Amino acid sequence: MGETVKCISSERMSPGLTRGLEVKKRHFGRFPSSDFKTLDKLLTYLEDRDTHFRDAGSSPAMDHKMKTQMNQTTLIKNAASPRLTHLPAVKARGLGVKKQDLGYLLTSDLKLLPTIPFVPRSLGSQPARRQGRVKHRNLTSKSILIGVLTLLGSLSNQIIAQDVLTLEESIQIAQQSSPDIKKSRLNLFSNKKSLDAQRAALKSRFALDITPLDYNRSRVFNDLFSTWNTTEDYNSFANFSVTQPIAATDGTISLVNSFGYRDNFSEFQDVRTQTYNNNLYLQVDQPIFTYNRNKLQLKELELNLENAQISNAIQLLNLERNVTQSFYTFYQSQNNLEIAQDEYENQKISYEITKNKVDADLLAKEELYQAELNLATSKSTMDNNQVLLDNAADDFKLLLGLDLSEDIAVDVDINFITREVDLNQAIQYGLENRMELRQRQIEIERSDFELVRTNALNEFKGTIGLSLGIFGDNERAPEVYQNPTINPRVAVSFSIPIWDWGENKARMQASNANLEINKVDLENQKNDIIINIRKTYRNLQNLENQIEIAQQNVKNAELTYEINLERYRNGDLTSIDLNQFQSQLSDKKSALADALINYKIELLNLKILSLYDFENQQPVLLPPTLDTY
Predict the structure, then answer these.
(1) CB 146 within 8 A of CB 360
(2) In a domain, 13, yes or no
């Protein structure tokens, strides 16, 4: 009764820990020491605690808490019985928790001493065994009970919480923290701003250029008079312009005003001129016989943004698939660890039975050696599953963008519910709504644009320039337009290619080939959608049958194991044969869990392939349109 354990640590909680408990999962933690040294002291504390709750008054919350605490008191009293040692898979009374999950403690109210939802049969929890802090020992149930109770004393110590995530919570976290989603959103933002910039470029542009000082003194030779002449020139001027692109014709219309002051001196005639001048004119420039570059660029940027939106939506769907697969991989690792723990508990029972029979000379000693071998193999399998669980946890946290040092577990409901799936409906939704098809169409449109650009590399084109202005100058600024001059201008120019040695023809053929490739890709994409939906549908039909078979196999394996365990107790079966039945049971449980998870994943695959959610019988929302950005 006085045997105690000084320290126990736990890096991870079993996923079965919280089933049936009416408390928040974040309250779970680990405690390094205890003040309870004897069972009597513990039971006295529990009775005092229950009395405190009864005297505290009545309220719905208090009644629930009192009922929970009293159930736990009853559980601990019953756990002290040696009979608990012989029940490998018994569940804690009223809590629905597997016995191998016992050993983890709960603090629901830090103002009071913690509750004890269940009592372990073995202090050697898997994480603790992995750290080498607690060694395996065959303890009686009472000594084990007292050892665990030594963990309850230091309630003021820091509690290390564990986050338990559901699939929906995991997807939401990944959508906010995943590096791939962050890059996708940045790409979407970049394309949107590029489109905004191009639209802004089609509006009026205002510009002001100022040159406050331009001074030049030079001496040059005058050929006409065969003499050297020194000139000195000072200028100060400003240009104000308003330019409006014409989106419909790819031309521009500009209003420009240039105002300046000039001070010039020439040594040749010894004359200094000081005048103000102003030039106000309207100018129109229009390209002809060529494509509208502004319009084409605007359309291309709109397609880029639409493609970025589609890519982001596809990325979100792929992320949901990846998170779901990683989530269930993590859960499978947890489940495999639970199964391995079950098997290990059963092997310990088998070992105790064998040891007792060998000690009583009812079995040969080689049976004990075989039992020890089975026990060691079971422990090794459990340790290996713990390593796989840790690796799966790291991969899952990396995918979600969580801190790798964070302690997490997953909570999942994989109850099998058949979903009605209409193959024709799935194919129809897929061909009508799959965003990859729109992406292929965008690629075809881009190829058309490239054809236009390629054809314009060596094209016949022209430009028309028109301007009309009024110019004036005077020694006094207010009288600058006293004698104005009208300045009209008309210019027409053409660019005429003559011979390019077949360059343009070859480039056009290459662009046409790329266009045909994109059209072929579109047809292949349609066929891939149909084929993948059909394959997924067949997998779902097959998995429904496999799940029913796996469920029946688990029932049969459990009954077979129970029957042969009793035969083993009666001496009618060897430990080798019993170990085979135990392995068969573990394999069937794993096969059932795998089939259930695969069914869930295939439902998600069908949702992504068809953009119809058959689990909730509703279409998947399409990506937002350009107007929403």
Answers:
(1) no
(2) no
The last residue of one of the domains, among 131, 161, 191, is 161
The DSSP secondary structure of 507-553, one letter per residue, reads: HHHHHHHHHHHHHHHHHHHHHHHHHHHHHHHHHHHHHHHHHHHHHHH
d(CA 272, CA 262): 10
Digit-coded pLDDT (tens) for 424-466 = 988 998 898 888 899 999 999 999 999 999 988 888 999 999 9
Task: Round the average pLDDT of the chain to a whole number and report it.
Answer: 76
Regarding whether 532 and 426 lie in a shared domain, the answer is: yes
Q: Which tokens in the block code for residue 6? A: 């000084």
Cβ atoms of 10 and 104 within 8 Å: the answer is yes
Q: What is the C-alpha to C-alpha distance for residues 444 and 157, in angstroms, rounded to an integer? A: 65
Task: Say if CB 175 and CB 612 are below 8 A apart.
Answer: no
pLDDT classification of 56: cutoffs 50, 70, 90: low
Q: Note whether 39 and 149 are same-domain residues.
A: yes
* Measured distance CA(188)–CA(313) in Å, rounded: 11
As given in the structure block, the two tokens for residue 518 are 């994109």
In single-letter form, the type of residue at position 185 comes to: R
CB 624 within 8 A of CB 445: no
pLDDT of 492 above 90: yes
Query: How many folded domains does the chain comprise?
Result: 4
Q: Are strands 618-619 and 251-266 parallel, antiparallel or unpaired?
A: unpaired
Q: Which amino acid belongs to residue 462? A: G
Which pLDDT value is given to residue 384?
95
Q: How confident is the model at residue 19 (pLDDT cuts 50, 70, 90)?
A: very low
Per the structure, the complete domain to which residue 75 belongs is given by 25-161
